[in-house]
Structures are given as structure tokens and as C-alpha cells.
Amino acid sequence: MAAGYGDLLRTRHAARLLCGTLLGRLPNATATLAIVLFARAEGGGYGLAGALTAVYGVGNAVGQPLLGRAVDLYGQPRVMLPASVLSALSVALFTVCGLSPLPVVFAAMLLAGFFTPPLEGGLRALWPSVLGREDRIHAAYALDAVAQEVMFAVGPLLVTLLVAAWSPTAALLAVNALGIAGALSVVVSPPSRRWRSAPREAHWLGALRSPGLLVLLGSFFFVGLALGSIAVAAVSYAEGHGGGLVSSYLLSGLGVGALVGGVVYGARQWPGVPERRLRLLVTALAAGYLPLMLVPGVVAMTALAALAGVFLAPALACAFVVVDRHAPRGTVTEAFSWLVTSFGVGAAIGGAVVGPAVEYGGTAAGFAVAGFGGCAALAVLLVTRGFLAVAEGPVVGGRGAENDRNAVVEPGFRAGHQA
Q1: Which one of 95, 194, 224, 365 is CB 3.0 to 4.6 Å from 357, fit for a cystine?
Q2: What is the DSSP letter of 291?
Q3: pTM, entire model
Q4: Domain of 140: which CATH number?
Q5: For residue 2, what are the domain limits?
Q6: Do the domain assignments include residue 396?
Q7: Do residues 211 and 252 both lie within one domain?
């Protein structure tokens, strides 16, 4: 297993692209915590801090697919690096202004979120040209999903350490400087500079004209809703079970489960078409969320949280493959960016919905929101399975694969692959 991932990372440019992308995404992964800490240090209340993070999230949700479309049209370097710099400059303006005047502060947060570069979708568009073989691409998707779990665990810790060592202002500026460095590392690499999307049909809907992609977006909106609700419900659980670090135990258990599941899933090839496999993985994911409503003692609850996380990274990795198969020609980066947006919007709504659920029904009701999210994600896939069936069976590459076959890549690498 380790040898397989090691071989993948030893492929020329692979480790650089993965690490650069993770570093470039650090500002987005830590934005909520860093913004709240800065706002509180400036004397703002939690209401204002929450509003600022919400505006950042709205900007991010709008900007990701639009910037993804720009990448497909103009290439990665011409979009990714300028966007990263503009996002960091907007954060710098935020730190200079503090919390006044408020219109400027909110505008800075909106721009910071909007110009967050679509590095996540960009990396997945690059994997076929860098790795060539189908099995290695699928393993890279799994490794990508695992790396996200590590980043979202380590990122907030880094912000906390920077705040303790210097200040919330320094933490915001340092993290965004690292983000620029990560984006720069990616866009100056040969695969990124040489990659071009396939010619695309002019259509205002872009990637959204694919029914299969719309099904995926609907399903993973509810997966995001489930995860967003768990984060808040875990705090409620902690208040009734000793407080302190109890909520972090649950969230860490969730992350460890996803880490283990992703590593195991990506270490081998799985039979059958990915659309059918995705339904099975989301079924297991939904089944893992339901026992959380039992709210047992801390040890058992942590174990249930770990179990609930096991199928998250595999489901995401499989979804990446399905997106690649269903993205219309010339829209692969935009399609991946839409998945990021759908997931993020679902998480934000889940965090908002679970609060009233906990207030009226207690902690178990909060975790019931997660169970509902998992079941709804599965229901979307089952009810609309006909829209995904187009790529099932003996298909010679999906439409996203056509994207890769027509991309400009380095000599020696096979651009196309069969999903």
C-alpha cells in the first residue's frame, strides 16, 4: 500500500503539484478560524465575525466555478497566480482596515473569497497528463482526498500557533503569503504551464449543462450539509459530556476515519463502473451517520465518529472520477470547482440548520441532521440514477477524459485515460 503511494509521489512533478496545491489552499482552509480570531482581537462580536466569514464563503462559492471556467479558457498560470495575489491583497486590506469602515471590510472579505484560486479543480485536471495510467489517476484522487483531511486538521493548528507566537494579523498575512507561494509553485511547473483544456462548445451554462454533473452536485450538497451539521452538533455534545476537548475528539475521530478509509480505498483498483460504486459508497456513508443519533458515552461516540468518517474520502475520490467522466468537453476545471462549491454551500447551510435543531430537540436532533444529509445524498443518486447511467458500461473514456486527451502535455505522458 505505502509502496504504491510512494511510487505515485515519485512520479515527476506529482509531489510538487500535490504539496503546492495544499499550500495554496491553506488560506481557504483556515479562513473561518483566522477571520474570527482577528475580528475578536479587534473588538468585534461573534455576530460580526460570523457575518464576515459568511461573506467570505459567499464570495468563494461564486468565484470558484467562474475562475474554474476562466482556467479552462485561458490556462492555469494566467488565472491561478493573479487570483491568489488579489485574494491575499484583499486580506491585507482587511487587516489594515480592522473593522472600520464596515463597507470596505465586507468588500475586502467578499473579494478575498471570490479570488481564491481554484487549485483543487486545477490539480485534478492535471493528474491525467502527469500520471498517465488510469490506476494511478484513481489512486491520486484518493490521495488528494486524504491530503485534504490532513490539511483541514493541520491548518487551524498552524493558525493557532501563529496567533500565539505573534498576532491574529500576522497569522492572516502569513497564511496568505504561504498561499501565494503554493500557487506559484504549481503554476510555474511544466505540467501547469503546458496544460490546455480541450476546445469547448460555447454555452452559457458551461459544465452545468451535464445532467450527470448536476446529480453529483445535488448529492454532495447533502454530504456537505451532513459534515457542517456534525461540527456544530459535536460542540453541543461536548457541553453535555464534560466540555473541554470532547468536541475535538469527535472531529479528530471523523478525520482519522476518513484518512484510513481514503488510504485503503486508493491502494487498490475496484471492480465495476465508478457510478455504481459511488452509490455503494454513499450508502455506507449515510449508514455511518445514523448511529451518531444514539449519542453514547465519549469513548463510544468517538468510535462512532471514526466509523462515520471511513467512507468520506473514498466517496469523494470516486466522485472525482465520475465528475471527470461527465464533465462536458473543455470544462473539466470548472466542473471540479462546481463540486467544491456545492460541497461548501451544503456545509454552510448544515451549520446554520443544526443550531435550531439542537435548541429544540437536543444533541441527538443535531446529529439527526447529519443522518438526514447522508440519506438525502443517497436518495439523490438513487432517484436520478438514469442521468448517471450514460457513462456506465463499456465506455471508451468519459467526456472529461476527452478533455485530457486533447490537452497539451509534456512529451512522454499519455494525456488520455479511460475512467
Answers
A1: 365
A2: G
A3: 0.77
A4: 1.20.1250.20
A5: 1-195
A6: yes
A7: yes
User: Same structural domain for residues 187 and 215?
Assistant: no
Q: Tens digit of pLDDT for each residue in 219-234?
A: 999 999 998 888 778 8
416 domain residue, yes or no = no
Residue 85 burial by Cβ neighbours in a 10 Å radius (0-12, 13-18, 19+): middle
The answer to whether 94 and 108 have CB atoms below 8 angstroms apart is: yes
Instruction: Output helix, strand, coil percentages for the chain, rounded to the nearest 5.
Output: 80, 0, 20
pLDDT, tens only, 310-367? 999 899 989 988 988 888 888 888 888 898 889 888 887 887 788 888 888 989 999 9
Q: Both 66 and 12 in a single domain?
A: yes
Q: Is 144 exposed, middle or buried (0-12, 13-18, 19+ CB in 10 A)?
A: buried
Q: Helix 119-131 to helix 312-326 angle, to the nearest 10 degrees?
A: 70
Are 149 and 241 members of one domain? no
Identity of the residue numbered 278: L
CA dihedral (18, 19, 20, 24) positive or negative: positive
- Domain count across the chain: 2
Q: Is residue 120 part of a domain?
A: yes
Question: Which residues 6+ apart lie within 8 Å of 27 measured at CB?
Answer: 87, 88, 91, 116, 175, 176, 178, 179
Domain shared by 191 and 210, yes or no? no
Final residue of a domain: which of 195, 216, 244?
A: 195
Cα distance between residue 213 and residue 210, in whole Å: 5
Q: Are 354 and 235 contacting, i.e. CB atoms less than 8 angstroms apart?
A: no
Residue 417 in domain: no
Q: How do residues 127-184 score in pLDDT, each as one tens digit? A: 888 987 777 887 888 888 888 777 877 787 788 788 889 999 999 999 999 999 999 9
Q: What's the longest Cα–Cα distance across the chain?
A: 61
* In a shared domain, residues 166 and 216: no
User: Closest Cα partner for 134 from 395, 381, 340?
Assistant: 395
Instruction: Encode 359-394: b = buried (16+ Cβ within 10 Å), e = exposed.
Output: eeebbbbbbbbbbbbbbbbbebbeebeebbebbeee
| Contact (Cβ atoms closer than 8 angstroms) between residue 24 and residue 151 | no
User: Residue 319: CA atoms inside 13 Å, Cβ hemisphere, count?
Assistant: 33
